[in-house]
Amino acid sequence: IELGEVEAALARHPAVTGTAVTAREDRLxxxxxxxxxxxxxxxxxxxRDFAATVLPRTAVPARFLPMAALPRTAGGKVDRRALPAxxxxxxxxxxxxxxxxxxxxxxxxxxxxxxxxxxxxxxxFRLGGHSLLAIRTASRLRTELAVxxxxxxxxxxxxxxxxxxxxxxxxxxxxxxIPPARPDRPPRASSGQQRLAFVDRLRPxxxxxxxxxxARLRGPLDVAALADALREVVTRHEPLRTRCVYQDGELVQxxxxxxxxxxxxxxxxxxxxxxxxxxxxxxxxxxDEPPLRVTLAGIDDADxxxxxxxxxxxxxxxxxxxxxxxxxxxxARRPVPAPPVRFADFAEWERTWSTSAQAEAxxxxxxxxxxxxxxxxxxxxxxxxxxRDTAGAAVEFTIxxxxxxxxxAIGRDEAATPFMTMLAAFTVLLAExxxxxxxVLGTTVTGRPLAAVENLVGPFMNSVVLRTDVRGxxxxxxxxxxxxxxxxxxxxxxxIPFERVVDAVRPRRDPGRNPLFQVLFELEPHGxxxxxxxxxxxxxxxxxxxxxxxxxxxxxxxQGDGSYxxxxxxxxxxxxxxxARGVVTGFLAVLEHAxxxxxxxxxxxxxHPVTExxxxxxxxxxxxxVYEATVTQAEDVIADIxxxxxxxxxxxxxxxxxxLGGHSLxxxxxxxxVQEEFDIDVPxxxxxxxxxxxxxxxxxxxxxxxxxxxxxxxxxxxxx
Length: 720
What we know:
The protein has 720 residues and is α+β, with helices and mostly antiparallel strands. Helix content is 38%, strand content 16%. The protein has helices at residues 3-11, 44-54, 100-113, 131-145, 152-156, 160-168, 191-202, 223-236, 272-280, 317-331, 343-353, 357-369, 401-413, 418-434, 476-491, 498-505, 577-596, 633-646, 664-678, 685-689, 693-719, and strands at residues 18-25, 31-38, 63-66, 210-218, 242-247, 250-255, 263-266, 292-300, 303-311, 392-399, 438-445, 462-469, 519-524, 537-541, 552-558, 564-571. Strands 7-8-9-4-14 form a five-stranded mixed beta sheet, covered by helices on one side. Strand 2, helix 2 (44-54) and strand 3 (63-66) form a beta-alpha-beta unit. The longest helix is centred in the C-terminal third of the chain and has 27 residues, at 693-719. Residues 612-625 have low confidence and may be disordered.
């Protein structure tokens, strides 16, 4: 709609004698409309209400500024250049903090948002806050106010008034302090390290858990300074030089000296991307070597390729930002504050927290939240196999800044972050695509609950399940409100490690599927500067690694100009490229529909067909089978092992290990016991592929028979 049309619509108000509408940009780069009008006595609220009746939602100005007289040129036209810039906020609604606590909270929140000041009743999310910033702000509030403030407060009551009231009411229970880990024993592994070590043991050296950061460096590179900077980074952040080893059945951290990681010189022959891919594709033996390799290849004296190859057991997305930022600062010999705690300290603190009442309350939330949940049954182009194939590909796309800004504005009206608003559009698409109205998918969170670990490297990232019931959701606004509430509740209970949620919910285990969700949604807010080296031009190089951790993932990366770089990553064993492109087209179509009129019934929208309609969903949670006694010696032995590990009175031959309460760590214990009892090598994955006792016993018997046949053949050969 043209600005002149908005002006003409406002001019129809009987009390208005003149109007001018301009487009402005806020500090986040979002475009919004400002309506200037005369005479000044007209009530702005009444004019806003009137505008809502004669204009589409997205054309209603965000600000209404009364003026005694509009500035005009000599020819009598409105002088738009003379129109004053609108204030940063609607001052008529501003209420200053009154108490000391309110002033402290306001200062911390304003600093996090990057605004000069914040009012008592201003909404954190309406001022540009997003989910990641809320989590970081909660950490800073805990640290600076010396209180254990739950992050849920920022989602449930995101104003200075409510946060300060919680502090004064002593809802928080005192400052959280992470004590040093015991020096007389190897520190125990964190939940993230346990999860990734278990996955590696189940499927060793899989490429989907390798991380590559590579750059072409053009200019006079000081190799010695780079080596010194790397050594300092590795010294500060122990996970980069930590081996994870099982000792007495428990995973512990063996921290090597900083010299364990050094820059390895190489020669980059041929295509640089191929070189980066080749160097970074080598897997890691997590018990035998540090999870970081650094390679520097010289093309000539002023042209180098730097490759950092890592395993996720050492880092996550936030960690990579920290590593590259500190590497640049230390290369320039600028001081960088040391982290206040070690990762080993955090891992031990996490163990203690996991037995707290707060942790149990979060677990109970997830038990209730996911009760009766069923997985998304995405229609696939190829049949699903028993074992998941990790080969993947991606379709990239862009959400233009104009569309992104309009979507953000819709969310802001509903106190929803861009993450929530984009997720609502994806949820609408998935509901149409699958024919299901109970949408369960996943996302990732930084997993850094305290300010002390904000700038620490390690595998903090956690997975969170998002469940939204869209039944009866007639409009996009309906779905957005449900997604907003669902996301806020999930993020308020994000501290429990994902594997503990899985153990508590006990879904049916399937080696061909990720537990609880197979579709992931991620939105990364604009991060700023990226990797920089003084005096050197840095050009990122992406490894050509085509993997898919899940069936489908939609990733959005906010750009500096307000647009979003998006990608749909998909498992090529299940989907064709045309289907992935259909997901992109359908997602953009939902966004465009929402911007035209988010209150329009979704039933009036013409859904974009992605693939054929889905088959009815399968049951996700299953009841235990009726007890059936064991019949073979192998079944007897394995039943005794299960009963001992799971603390059960009896185990039947048709019982499922995971339905009985088994989980990843207990599976490792069962594997070790079975190998000891039968003196055979049984892979950990056997328990996931054959979780029923009789099936596992058959696998063991087959292995024993094979071992005996091999030994007999060897004896026969020696005597022959």
